[in-house]
Amino acid sequence: MTPTITTPDQTDKARQIITLMIALDPEAQGHTLARLVAATLHGGPGTALEHFASTGTLDPEAALAELNELRVPLEQEDWIDTLGRYILLNAGARS
């Protein structure tokens, strides 16, 4: 018999996040999404992506170098592309 694993329903949390993202202006949406992706993909404390996720301060060169080294499942490759585009487009805007 295969055990059944029950996980908490995150539907309400997802709705809250989606509602919040829609309410933000487009620039804030991009920044918030980039930080969320960085928080999900970073390699641990002290990395450029972790620092960006936690503070919003971006070291573009270090973050891009980390992105180039990441290995993720196929379904998350667009996350790397999205974060990479954000970094390239905003490299001088936030420091």
Largest sheet: none
Strand percentage: under 5%
Tally the beta strands: 0
Low-confidence stretches: none
* Count of alpha/pi helices: 5
> What would you call the shape?
globular
Overall mean confidence score, pLDDT: 84
Calculate Rg over CA atoms: 15 Å
Distance between the termini: 54 Å
* Number of separate structural domains: 1
Helix content: 55-70%
Class by alpha and beta content = mainly alpha
Order of helices and strands: HHHHH
Q: What attributes characterize this protein structure?
A:
globular; 95 residues; 64% helix; 5 helices; mainly alpha
Explain this structure to me?
- The chain has helices spanning 11-23, 26-41, 48-55, 60-69, 77-90.
- By secondary structure, the chain is mainly alpha-helical.
- It has one domain.
- Helix 2 (26-41) crosses helix 5 (77-90).
- The N and C termini lie far apart (54 Å).
- 15% of the residues are buried.
Question: Secondary-structure map with pairings?
Answer:
Layout: H1 11-23, H2 26-41, H3 48-55, H4 60-69, H5 77-90
Quick structural summary:
This protein has 95 residues and is mainly alpha-helical.
